[in-house]
Automatic annotation (TrEMBL):
Transmembrane segment boundaries: none
Molecular function GO labels: hydrolase activity
Organism: Halalkaliarchaeum desulfuricum
Enzyme class, spelled out: hydrolase
Location of region: Disordered: 1-20
Nucleotidyltransferase is among the record's keywords: no
Domain of life: Archaea
EC number: 3.3.1.1
UniProt KW keywords: Hydrolase
Name of the encoding gene: ahcY
Protein name: Adenosylhomocysteinase
SUPFAM superfamilies the UniProt entry points to: Formate/glycerate dehydrogenase catalytic domain-like
Signal peptide start and end residues: none
Length: 61
């Protein structure tokens, strides 16, 4: 990834404006930053996921 960033910094070929950043890269960078800080995020349980999905269904009404 660093080589790609160096190439973009040298001659990005992009107009100076905001450009979309792929979500998968955003998650990867965030995960690496959290790992460097020795922070972990737990996964929600199946029961929590079902509760959230039910809440979203009722919120649409």
């Amino acid at each position: 990834m660093t080589r790609g960033l160096a190439k973009l910094a040298g001659d990005p070929g992009l107009e100076p404006e905001l450009h979309p950043f792929p979500a998968r890269f955003d998650r990867e960078v965030a995960a690496e930053k959290l790992a460097a800080m020795d922070v972990s995020i737990d996964e929600i349980t199946a029961a929590q996921r079902r509760y959230h999905e039910q809440w979203e269904e009722h919120d649409d009404e």
